[in-house]
Amino acid sequence: MSKPKAPSRRRSQEAFKEASTHFPGGVNSPVRSWRSVGMNEEGPFFVARAKGSELVDLDGKRYVDFVGSWGPMILGHGHAKVVQALRKQAQRGVSYGCPTDLESRLARRVKRVLPSIEKLRFVSSGSEAVMHALRLARGFTKREKILKFEGCYHGASDAVLVKAGSGAATFGVPDSAGVPESVAQHTLTVPYNDLAAAREAIASAKGNLASVILEPVVGNSGVLPPEPGFLEGLAKAAKEAGALLIFDEVMTGFRVGPSSAQGLFGIKPDLTTLGKILGGGLPCAAYGGRADVMDSVAPLGPVYQAGTLSGNPLAMAAGIATLDELKDKACYERLEKLSVQVVASIAQAAKDAGWSEKICINRVGSMFTVFFCKGPVRNFAEAKAADGAAFGRFFRGMLARGVYLPPSPFEAAFVNLAFRPKDLKRIARAARETFAEI
Ligand SMILES: *Cc1c(COP(=O)(O)O)cnc(C)c1O
Predict the structure, then answer these.
(1) How does pLDDT run across 156-168, given as a tens digit for each residue?
(2) CATH 3.30.565.10 is right for the domain spanning 80-325
(3) What is the domain class of 10-65+329-437 according to CATH?
(4) Least buried of 128, 306, 325, 338, by fewest C-beta within 10 Å?
């Protein structure tokens, strides 16, 4: 199998054509359009079904799936226990708008591994969790400003769709049309892994800083690990300034270890946001943390938050089944081993084809990114300096050989527990052939 025959993509292309008449860009979330890998004409494959490590597209082609619904599918697709839990719950009703004990059962499982969370609220998406966590931080501290880091993604709400210009701390400039300057100006942004810049920004807020929010391991610039001392230094600086530290663990939660990034690095944030794996692939997210802070949320306190589908029984059931599977610590050891093997095989393929000086692979647990530059890649500016066209060729080469990587150079690839030895072989062979070709 040297040069793979271009597979028929007829059905996917027809589906994309119709979808484009219904949805802007043919999709319901922008990265799904594959524009950033040079495939905006062709469009993405459309998925017919998925099982274990694989996706099957409408044209019947199979792919080893490194996207896993952008993180949630750590157990693989269609895990028997999750499916069983969903079936059982669906027969009892899918939504009541009343409390159920499923919510407490999932909460107990969250708190068991994340002791920083004393109380929490379930919501339906990571964006929603972050939006409410920030409102809560503002309401609790009675302050206005927040500090975030360039290249950290915290969902699509106004306050966090802001990044800085280069250099020192600057007042926010909106990153999206439709975000008022008057909102963005309260968001300070500095480069990730730059503690000095963060300290300066905190000082510049002059006692009006409600929160410091970050991805404790960045996944949304591609994977960027925190440098030694960065998280500790930030926690200390936030505390001294009286600002709440929010770890956005929507991606890293239950991904980089059972106790997530906060356990891995031994830091206790004031608030945490969770999503993705928490709902096992169903719409589910949460924010939580210190009980004194959480008690400011309505109906106990003055900070309003509500949701018709919050704590949805199906989502709770899938979350409970997923976290129960992950209770076995051996899961994370197995995931680590699989991830080491996968990344080693990609690195070896690059080396054999003379690419090793031109790429840099960042990995934390089962999250990794292949950056097409020499490295190290420590922040968003360095991630952006990588060769995007080369990444696009890599993506397309792997895709043609049945391996689906995230369709953007600024995303994390995920290894999941359903990867089998034959998937690893397929990945290694695809990488060898792709690096030799591009
Ligand atoms: C995915 C993600 C979000 C947004 O979650 P949605 O469920 O897509 O709204 C927020 N923060 C981080 C770190 C994420 O990775």
Answers:
(1) 999 998 873 333 4
(2) no
(3) alpha beta
(4) 306
